[in-house]
Predict the 3D structure of the following.
Amino acid sequence: MNRTVYMDHSATTAVRAEAVEAMLPWFGEEYGNASSVHGFGRRAHEALERARATIASRLGARPAEIVFTSGGTESDNLAIQGIAAAAGKGHIVTSAIEHPAVLTTCSVLEKRGFDVTRLPVDDTGLVRPADLEQALRPDTILVSIMAANSEVGTIQPVAELAALADAAGVPFHTDAVQAVGKIPVDVDEWGVDLLSLSAHKFYGPKGVGALYVRAGTRLRALQHGGHHEQKRRAGTENVPGAVGMATALDLICAEMPAEATRLRHLRDRLQQGLLDNVDHSSLNGHPTQRLPHLLNLTCENAEGESILLSLDACGIAVSTGSACSSGSLEPSHVLLAMGIPAEMAHGSVRFSLGRANTAEDVEYVIQKLPPIVERLRSMSPLTITS
Ligand SMILES: *Cc1c(COP(=O)(O)O)cnc(C)c1O
């Protein structure tokens, strides 16, 4: 008897009904351009500004500090390239476990003459503040370290890291795409200058996100045109997207304490059930300082991709590492940076739980995974020797 169990919420989520409902008028009769002066335009503008105010208040920011973008990737690019363009040259510090939107952007800037330091992480995925302190130089123009990792869920000590950058007078960017809606996020408590978020990771629509930019931060626009978004991002605003994002953020933040507890219980049960029933399996990531919905496991001598496909045949959707790197045979850069050997990294699977998941879903996965791993191992040329 097959169920459908979606446990890939770190890749994307379903748009919640309230967000769909809130967006509909702005696709339909209220189709105005937020820059137009007539009634259609004014109403669209007001909706956009209400969305901006809601998002700002949920992040502890001011509305003028929120720039709407097309998603997390654009927000990361605008933060990093925008600071780099304003500075002209210099040194950027990031970590080895960032999302490709950050890592690839830094590599492109490196080819254009910027210096880049990629901080290592410990075996739980944590950046050591002392390493950041050592990496900062007089010519450092930006530190970009993610709030929570998408593959293993490890939560960085953002406030501590941002304070070190601040003491050196260097702006601090955090990719909080995985953190928003899962853990409390407040730009002043963290002391960050730039923060990326993406609606589709918290039950909002795809193709819309935002970048928080602290007032006074020197940032150059990447795309030019009209005077939208205070000249920080030209282009007719995605009013339905912004409205859907604000609705989804408002609700996820309101639900967070209770939902985080529920997901943590489900996740912990899944973790225990799988570790108990799959021999030679181990947890990747920080045991406690970790997103409440996320579980990354290595099953030795079983390919992650093969596990994924076998689970898929049972109606269970998971991922191996990041969705962006699946399809490639390279082991996850995150697991490698944590010191996990390549052959172990190949056997890793990520379960990311969400709103629709139940205790029955968890039991179903606990029932299905162990025989899958056993069968794959029996077909594997490798044998476990311990
Ligand atoms: C999903 C994700 C992104 C990219 O966001 P998109 O809106 O899909 O472009 C960036 N960073 C992290 C940590 C993510 O999980």
